[in-house]
Amino acid sequence: MPLFGRKRVKDQPVEEPEPFRLPEPPAPGPGGMRSVVDHRDYLLSCIEPLPPFGQQILDAVGLTLCEDVVSAISLPRFDNSSMDGYAVRAQDIHLASVASPTSLPVVGEVPAGAPAPHSLSPGTAMKIMTGAMLPEGADTVVPYEATDRGEQDVRIVEALDPGSNVRRVGEDINEGEVVLRAGDRLASRSIGLLAGIGIDKVMVRPRPRVVVISTGDELTEPGFVLQGDQKIYDSNSYMLAAAAKAAGAQVFRVGLVPDDPERLKQVINDQLVRADLILTTGGVSQGDYDIVKQVLPELGATDFTTVAMQPGKPQGFGLIGDDQTPIIMMPGNPVSAFVSFEAFVRPVLRKLAGVDSYLRRPVIATAARGISSIPDKLQFARGVVAEGDNGELIADLASGHGSHLLGGLAGANALLLLGEDTEFVAAGDQVEAWLLLEDG
Ligand code: AMP
Ligand code: MG
Fold this sequence. Notes:
Structural class: alpha/beta
Keywords: Magnesium, Metal-binding, Molybdenum, Molybdenum cofactor biosynthesis, Transferase
Enzyme class: transferase
Number of domains: 4
Radius of gyration: 33 Å
Helix content: 10-25%
CATH class of the largest domain: Alpha Beta
GO molecular function: metal ion binding; molybdopterin molybdotransferase activity
EC number: 2.10.1.1
Bound molecules: adenosine monophosphate, magnesium ion
Shape: elongated
InterPro entries: MoaB/Mog-like_dom_sf, MoaB/Mog_dom, MoeA-like, MoeA_C_domain_IV, MoeA_C_domain_IV_sf, MoeA_linker/N, MoeA_linker/N_sf
């Protein structure tokens, strides 16, 4: 038997890893399009909040808590004075008046941050400063204004109820109380509270890192001369970067990429490393140059669809790259891009950031005039909502429905939501609106 004549083990077939797939998308509605709510819920179901990390409180402002915060101390920590004045027993001054002041010997002084020298004996007063601990035996503080500010003896010209000008232990916060909850976004006031109960670090979710890319051969960077009559300025990447920033994201605006598949792939691949979410505009409709739609399936699992909305009908979503980074691909018309941000990107950003409510709360307003709407689609009309004479909200149109009307969008302060079943809203009818508050 030849030495090396052993039977060769056949090469094992290499198992190809299953390509990553998106979950089954929702079925389209009667018009062949997906509803706005279905699309939004689908995107939300495909992403998870970012992992939490410990952060110094000053750097946590605007971020979302992911733990309940329990106070280890009461606020106030001890009974203390709310005024500069004299600590007394109310019963010792119950006859005091301007006509007949009560005189008490001053037996000591309590500054803030120092203990009282001794407890207060009946029939005496002790000088006390704002925030200083009430001496034992005292139940009331007489402010300087109701005295002659005496040093040896003090003349008091007003009778006060027991407890006057005293801040009670725990009247603000009790030891063991939950003061902030997971899902709360930390405002500067909350940072003050955390510091006030002695907490210097909290577990929060990071700001989502958002990369913004615009696509189109026609685009020119603002600040540069338009080279050719066909060129336009790139408004979308600035608008979306600004919107994402105002919504609490850390934004990397990459700017414009021409309609070149290889360039687009390269740029997106390069950006994946620093993105929790990628936003693109342009190139998702049916045109020959709609390269986003052509190229993205090569980078991961994607879902291109039409949503029953106006503007913003063509929409793309994907989870791409090794980390399945979410990407939302919006149409290029500026108003379409903005409406897509409000309808889909803002809720996704909020979920990534761990905020517990994803949607803007709509308000109800009265239409100032008749507004027509496209049937079978949710129309996002640009509106101006103002307070009427009786404090009710009045909604008017800020511009026509065209998705290119950037000036009309800038003049709006609301999006009026005209439902799929609505063809016309008469003057005086109620309409739902999203007020475009930047941190809403
Ligand atoms: P698209 O979705 O690429 O077919 O673009 C639709 C329309 O939006 C075209 O008129 C584009 O010129 C315009 N558009 C696309 N991207 C931008 C952008 N970044 N800024 C302004 N207009 C844009
Ligand atoms: Mg384009």
